[in-house]
Amino acid sequence: MTGAPFTMDVELGKIREFAHATKSSNPDYLKTDVPVSPATFLASAAFWTGPENTPPLDEIGDVARILHGEQEFVFHGEPPRAGTRLVGQTRIGASYEKQGTRGGSMRFVELVTEFRTPEGRLVAESKSTAIVTGQVPTEGSATS
Amino acid sequence: MTTTATTASTASTAVNPTSWADLQLGVAATPFTDAPLTRTDFVRYQGASGDMNPIHHDEQFARAAGFPTVFAVGMLQAGILATYATDWLGAANIRRFQVRFREQAWPDDVLTYSGSVVGRREKDGRRLVDIELTATRQTGGVHITGSATFVVA
Predict the structure, then answer these.
(1) Fewest beta carbons less than 10 Å away: which of A58, B76, B119, B142?
(2) Residue A121 structural domain
(3) How far is residue A100's CA from residue B127's CA, in Å, rounded to a whole number?
(4) From the candidates B6, B49, B80, B131, which should be mutated to test the interface with A, based on the most A CB atoms within 10 A?
(5) What is the tally of structural domains in chain A?
Protein backbone atom coordinates (compact mmCIF):
# COMPACT_ATOMS: atom_id res chain seq x y z
CA MET A 1 0.00 0.00 0.00
CA THR A 2 1.76 3.10 -1.26
CA GLY A 3 0.76 6.73 -1.77
CA ALA A 4 1.65 8.72 -4.87
CA PRO A 5 5.08 10.44 -4.77
CA PHE A 6 5.14 14.12 -3.78
CA THR A 7 7.65 16.94 -4.09
CA MET A 8 8.80 18.89 -1.01
CA ASP A 9 11.12 21.89 -1.21
CA VAL A 10 13.11 22.50 1.96
CA GLU A 11 12.63 26.26 2.30
CA LEU A 12 14.75 28.73 4.26
CA GLY A 13 11.81 30.66 5.72
CA LYS A 14 10.07 27.47 6.78
CA ILE A 15 13.25 26.27 8.51
CA ARG A 16 13.47 29.55 10.45
CA GLU A 17 9.75 29.43 11.33
CA PHE A 18 9.95 25.79 12.41
CA ALA A 19 13.06 26.43 14.53
CA HIS A 20 11.32 29.32 16.33
CA ALA A 21 8.21 27.20 16.88
CA THR A 22 10.31 24.47 18.51
CA LYS A 23 11.90 27.10 20.79
CA SER A 24 15.31 27.03 19.17
CA SER A 25 17.65 29.99 19.05
CA ASN A 26 20.41 27.94 17.45
CA PRO A 27 22.29 30.04 14.86
CA ASP A 28 22.86 26.88 12.83
CA TYR A 29 19.13 27.10 11.99
CA LEU A 30 18.44 30.81 12.39
CA LYS A 31 21.53 32.68 11.17
CA THR A 32 23.30 30.46 8.64
CA ASP A 33 22.62 31.26 4.97
CA VAL A 34 22.02 27.64 4.02
CA PRO A 35 20.96 25.94 7.27
CA VAL A 36 20.26 22.28 7.83
CA SER A 37 16.64 21.58 8.69
CA PRO A 38 15.65 20.81 12.29
CA ALA A 39 15.47 17.13 13.26
CA THR A 40 11.66 16.97 13.20
CA PHE A 41 11.24 19.39 10.27
CA LEU A 42 10.01 16.69 7.88
CA ALA A 43 6.77 16.69 9.89
CA SER A 44 5.97 19.78 7.80
CA ALA A 45 5.71 17.56 4.71
CA ALA A 46 2.00 17.92 5.51
CA PHE A 47 2.12 21.15 3.47
CA TRP A 48 3.19 19.21 0.39
CA THR A 49 0.83 16.27 0.51
CA GLY A 50 -2.81 15.57 -0.25
CA PRO A 51 -5.05 12.54 0.11
CA GLU A 52 -3.47 10.91 -2.95
CA ASN A 53 -0.07 10.86 -1.19
CA THR A 54 -1.30 8.89 1.81
CA PRO A 55 -1.83 5.14 1.54
CA PRO A 56 -5.50 4.19 1.99
CA LEU A 57 -6.10 4.52 5.72
CA ASP A 58 -9.55 2.97 5.77
CA GLU A 59 -7.95 -0.42 6.24
CA ILE A 60 -6.20 0.88 9.37
CA GLY A 61 -9.44 1.58 11.20
CA ASP A 62 -11.63 4.44 12.40
CA VAL A 63 -9.49 7.51 11.80
CA ALA A 64 -11.14 9.27 14.76
CA ARG A 65 -9.58 6.63 17.02
CA ILE A 66 -6.03 6.97 15.77
CA LEU A 67 -3.29 8.28 18.08
CA HIS A 68 0.26 9.23 17.21
CA GLY A 69 2.26 6.77 19.30
CA GLU A 70 5.80 7.02 18.01
CA GLN A 71 7.83 8.99 15.50
CA GLU A 72 11.31 8.43 14.10
CA PHE A 73 13.47 10.31 11.59
CA VAL A 74 16.60 8.74 10.10
CA PHE A 75 19.11 10.84 8.13
CA HIS A 76 21.57 9.34 5.64
CA GLY A 77 24.09 12.13 6.10
CA GLU A 78 23.26 15.54 7.54
CA PRO A 79 19.62 16.65 7.59
CA PRO A 80 18.54 18.24 4.27
CA ARG A 81 19.58 21.88 3.90
CA ALA A 82 17.56 24.86 2.69
CA GLY A 83 17.21 24.72 -1.08
CA THR A 84 17.02 20.94 -1.27
CA ARG A 85 14.23 19.46 -3.34
CA LEU A 86 12.96 16.15 -1.97
CA VAL A 87 10.68 13.55 -3.45
CA GLY A 88 8.72 11.73 -0.78
CA GLN A 89 6.66 8.59 -0.93
CA THR A 90 4.68 7.01 1.91
CA ARG A 91 3.85 3.35 2.40
CA ILE A 92 2.19 1.31 5.10
CA GLY A 93 4.90 -0.61 6.96
CA ALA A 94 4.57 -3.10 9.80
CA SER A 95 1.23 -3.66 11.49
CA TYR A 96 0.78 -5.49 14.78
CA GLU A 97 -1.43 -5.79 17.89
CA LYS A 98 -0.59 -5.33 21.56
CA GLN A 99 -2.60 -5.61 24.76
CA GLY A 100 -3.35 -2.19 26.25
CA THR A 101 -2.54 -1.40 29.87
CA ARG A 102 -6.24 -0.97 30.69
CA GLY A 103 -7.58 -3.95 28.81
CA GLY A 104 -8.52 -4.30 25.20
CA SER A 105 -6.12 -4.59 22.34
CA MET A 106 -4.54 -1.77 20.40
CA ARG A 107 -3.45 -1.98 16.81
CA PHE A 108 -0.17 -0.39 15.75
CA VAL A 109 0.36 0.62 12.14
CA GLU A 110 3.58 2.11 10.79
CA LEU A 111 3.56 4.76 8.05
CA VAL A 112 7.00 4.99 6.43
CA THR A 113 7.97 7.92 4.18
CA GLU A 114 11.19 7.88 2.16
CA PHE A 115 12.65 11.24 1.10
CA ARG A 116 15.00 11.16 -1.88
CA THR A 117 16.72 13.69 -4.10
CA PRO A 118 15.19 13.96 -7.58
CA GLU A 119 18.17 11.82 -8.69
CA GLY A 120 17.05 9.07 -6.33
CA ARG A 121 19.56 9.32 -3.48
CA LEU A 122 17.94 8.42 -0.14
CA VAL A 123 18.20 11.46 2.17
CA ALA A 124 15.90 10.66 5.07
CA GLU A 125 13.17 8.36 6.28
CA SER A 126 10.25 9.15 8.55
CA LYS A 127 8.40 6.45 10.45
CA SER A 128 5.14 7.31 12.21
CA THR A 129 3.51 4.70 14.36
CA ALA A 130 -0.25 5.14 14.60
CA ILE A 131 -2.18 3.49 17.42
CA VAL A 132 -5.77 2.53 16.73
CA THR A 133 -7.66 2.33 20.03
CA GLY A 134 -11.16 1.12 20.73
CA GLN A 135 -12.00 4.07 22.96
CA VAL A 136 -11.53 7.81 23.32
CA PRO A 137 -8.00 8.25 24.64
CA THR A 138 -7.54 9.59 28.16
CA GLU A 139 -4.55 10.94 29.96
CA GLY A 140 -1.84 8.35 30.46
CA SER A 141 -3.33 5.78 28.14
CA ALA A 142 -1.59 6.86 24.94
CA THR A 143 0.80 3.92 24.88
CA SER A 144 1.35 0.75 26.81
CA MET B 1 31.20 20.88 13.64
CA THR B 2 31.00 21.52 17.35
CA THR B 3 28.33 23.15 19.44
CA THR B 4 30.59 25.89 20.72
CA ALA B 5 28.71 28.55 18.80
CA THR B 6 25.34 27.35 19.98
CA THR B 7 25.81 27.46 23.73
CA ALA B 8 23.91 30.73 24.09
CA SER B 9 20.70 29.22 22.71
CA THR B 10 17.40 28.94 24.49
CA ALA B 11 17.27 25.31 25.36
CA SER B 12 20.79 24.82 26.63
CA THR B 13 22.85 27.54 28.18
CA ALA B 14 25.39 25.29 29.87
CA VAL B 15 28.55 24.05 28.20
CA ASN B 16 28.06 20.35 27.78
CA PRO B 17 30.66 17.76 26.75
CA THR B 18 30.82 17.30 22.99
CA SER B 19 34.07 15.46 22.24
CA TRP B 20 34.39 11.72 21.65
CA ALA B 21 36.73 11.51 24.64
CA ASP B 22 34.25 13.25 26.95
CA LEU B 23 31.05 11.57 25.75
CA GLN B 24 31.42 8.48 27.90
CA LEU B 25 28.51 6.21 28.79
CA GLY B 26 26.27 7.84 31.37
CA VAL B 27 27.45 11.39 30.68
CA ALA B 28 24.44 13.71 30.77
CA ALA B 29 23.73 17.15 29.39
CA THR B 30 22.41 19.82 31.75
CA PRO B 31 18.61 19.40 31.85
CA PHE B 32 16.51 22.20 30.39
CA THR B 33 13.31 23.29 32.13
CA ASP B 34 11.07 25.20 29.74
CA ALA B 35 8.58 27.96 30.49
CA PRO B 36 5.01 26.71 31.05
CA LEU B 37 3.38 25.43 27.84
CA THR B 38 0.87 27.87 26.38
CA ARG B 39 -1.89 27.62 23.83
CA THR B 40 0.14 30.13 21.81
CA ASP B 41 3.01 27.59 21.71
CA PHE B 42 0.57 25.02 20.30
CA VAL B 43 -0.83 27.36 17.65
CA ARG B 44 2.60 28.53 16.55
CA TYR B 45 3.80 24.94 16.15
CA GLN B 46 0.65 23.91 14.35
CA GLY B 47 1.07 26.77 11.90
CA ALA B 48 4.71 25.85 11.33
CA SER B 49 4.07 22.12 10.88
CA GLY B 50 0.76 22.15 9.01
CA ASP B 51 -0.97 19.89 11.56
CA MET B 52 -4.11 21.93 12.22
CA ASN B 53 -5.95 19.35 14.35
CA PRO B 54 -8.43 21.51 16.33
CA ILE B 55 -8.08 19.26 19.41
CA HIS B 56 -4.97 21.35 20.27
CA HIS B 57 -6.46 24.85 19.99
CA ASP B 58 -10.28 24.74 19.82
CA GLU B 59 -11.66 24.60 23.36
CA GLN B 60 -15.19 23.66 22.33
CA PHE B 61 -13.95 20.96 19.99
CA ALA B 62 -11.74 19.42 22.70
CA ARG B 63 -14.58 19.40 25.26
CA ALA B 64 -17.00 17.89 22.78
CA ALA B 65 -14.44 15.11 22.24
CA GLY B 66 -14.43 14.38 25.99
CA PHE B 67 -11.31 16.23 27.10
CA PRO B 68 -11.23 18.82 29.93
CA THR B 69 -9.46 21.29 27.63
CA VAL B 70 -7.12 21.36 24.65
CA PHE B 71 -3.94 19.30 25.06
CA ALA B 72 -0.38 19.80 23.85
CA VAL B 73 0.80 18.79 20.39
CA GLY B 74 3.13 15.84 21.01
CA MET B 75 5.28 16.78 18.03
CA LEU B 76 5.89 20.24 19.52
CA GLN B 77 7.50 18.79 22.62
CA ALA B 78 9.30 16.26 20.38
CA GLY B 79 10.64 19.26 18.46
CA ILE B 80 11.76 21.01 21.66
CA LEU B 81 13.47 17.77 22.71
CA ALA B 82 15.25 17.79 19.33
CA THR B 83 16.20 21.45 19.92
CA TYR B 84 17.71 20.43 23.26
CA ALA B 85 19.60 17.50 21.69
CA THR B 86 20.95 19.45 18.71
CA ASP B 87 21.99 22.38 20.92
CA TRP B 88 24.10 19.81 22.75
CA LEU B 89 25.62 17.75 19.92
CA GLY B 90 25.16 19.82 16.77
CA ALA B 91 22.40 20.56 14.27
CA ALA B 92 24.28 19.06 11.30
CA ASN B 93 25.51 16.04 13.26
CA ILE B 94 22.20 14.35 13.99
CA ARG B 95 21.53 11.11 12.11
CA ARG B 96 18.50 9.70 13.92
CA PHE B 97 15.81 11.04 16.25
CA GLN B 98 13.01 8.96 17.73
CA VAL B 99 10.25 9.65 20.24
CA ARG B 100 7.52 7.66 21.95
CA PHE B 101 4.56 9.59 23.33
CA ARG B 102 3.54 8.59 26.87
CA GLU B 103 1.32 10.76 29.11
CA GLN B 104 -0.36 13.68 27.44
CA ALA B 105 0.86 17.18 28.28
CA TRP B 106 -1.45 20.13 28.96
CA PRO B 107 -1.43 23.93 28.91
CA ASP B 108 0.60 25.33 31.86
CA ASP B 109 2.64 22.13 32.15
CA VAL B 110 6.29 22.78 32.97
CA LEU B 111 8.41 20.25 31.12
CA THR B 112 12.02 19.34 31.77
CA TYR B 113 14.10 17.95 28.91
CA SER B 114 17.08 15.73 29.66
CA GLY B 115 19.49 13.45 27.87
CA SER B 116 22.46 11.18 28.47
CA VAL B 117 24.86 8.98 26.55
CA VAL B 118 23.83 5.33 26.30
CA GLY B 119 26.00 4.10 23.41
CA ARG B 120 29.29 4.70 21.62
CA ARG B 121 30.26 2.98 18.39
CA GLU B 122 32.15 3.34 15.15
CA LYS B 123 30.54 2.65 11.80
CA ASP B 124 32.07 3.20 8.34
CA GLY B 125 34.89 5.18 9.92
CA ARG B 126 32.49 7.50 11.77
CA ARG B 127 32.22 7.86 15.51
CA LEU B 128 28.59 7.65 16.62
CA VAL B 129 27.06 8.45 20.00
CA ASP B 130 23.61 7.23 20.99
CA ILE B 131 21.72 9.25 23.57
CA GLU B 132 18.47 8.66 25.40
CA LEU B 133 16.11 11.57 25.88
CA THR B 134 13.19 12.32 28.19
CA ALA B 135 10.58 15.04 28.57
CA THR B 136 9.15 14.98 32.09
CA ARG B 137 6.14 16.86 33.43
CA GLN B 138 6.17 18.84 36.69
CA THR B 139 4.19 15.96 38.22
CA GLY B 140 7.08 13.59 37.55
CA GLY B 141 5.04 11.87 34.86
CA VAL B 142 6.88 11.08 31.66
CA HIS B 143 5.50 12.82 28.56
CA ILE B 144 8.04 11.56 26.01
CA THR B 145 10.86 9.04 25.94
CA GLY B 146 13.18 9.21 23.00
CA SER B 147 16.59 8.52 21.57
CA ALA B 148 18.95 9.98 19.02
CA THR B 149 22.21 9.25 17.23
CA PHE B 150 24.88 11.84 16.43
CA VAL B 151 28.18 11.73 14.61
CA VAL B 152 30.95 13.09 16.81
CA ALA B 153 34.28 14.55 15.74
Answers:
(1) A58
(2) 6-133
(3) 38
(4) B49
(5) 1
